[in-house]
Structure formats: C-alpha cells, structure tokens
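Hello forum,

I keep getting stuck at the same step: I have a sequence, I want structure tokens, and every attempt I make locally crashes halfway through. Rather than fight my setup again tonight, could one of you with a working pipeline run this one for me? It's a single chain of 150 residues.
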Amino acid sequence: MNCNFSYLHYKEILETALRSSYNFINFFEFINKDKFEKKDKFLNEKICILRHDIDYEVEKIYSIAKIEYDLGINSTYFFQTCAWEYNSREKETVKIVKEIFKMGHKIGVHLDLSWYENISIENISKYFEREKKLLSNILGIDLIDIFSYH
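Reply #2:
Ran it on my machine without issues. Output:
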C-alpha cells in the first residue's frame, strides 16, 4: 500500500482495518457502552472511532463520507459555525452536510474558541451550546452533544 493520501489510499486503509476485524463505532456508542445490551463487545474487540474536523473544503469531505458509507462505516464530522475557509450557511455546504447526515454519519460542532473573547474553562460549555444551537438551526438536523475544538 503506497501512502499517497488519495481517496483510494484512504479506502485501502479502511478496508485493511475491516479485514483486521476492527469494529467502527461512533462517540455515542463508546460513551454509552455500559448501556448497550452487548457491552462486552467493546472489551474483546478492536474498535476504531473515526472523526473528521472540517477546517477546509467542505466539498471534498463528501468523498470521504461516501467511501465510509460504501464500506458500512459511520464516523463523526465536526463542522464550524464560523470558519475562515467555508460558510456553514452557504447553500452547497448545507446540502453536503445534510447528505453526510443522511448516510448515517454523526454531525457535531468544531468549536473554534478564537472567535470568542475572555475565554475561560467555565464558559466553554456556554460557547458550545450556543454554537450547537446555531449550527443545528442552520442545518435543520440534531447534532451530537460532543464537540472538537481548536
């Protein structure tokens, strides 16, 4: 396998993981593993939690989501409400995110705290809730209660 960072190479990596008996789960499944009927599966299996922080080129991320979907893998995509490289309110961006969501992938907030002044640990949950509500309203979908951040 040649490491050239192409879509084909990404697919090959995922196929190798599947052949090696990795079980792909999402953050919700992992955090709530004790609530699942077959919680022992998490103790005895190789698991992989895929996440993607979207900083650039939303159009290209659709190809990655499609590869995962075609392989039966679900992952989590974290989008920013305010990004230097894309507009989360742009019609094409909303369309792509909704398509990714329809594939069964989870959508969350990629929180960029540099947009806020007077950042403190006490305020992070407030910032997250604000961003989550905004992005959920823009997209018209429910977002997960997990965020990634800069």
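The mean pLDDT is 88. If your local run keeps crashing, start a new thread with the error log.
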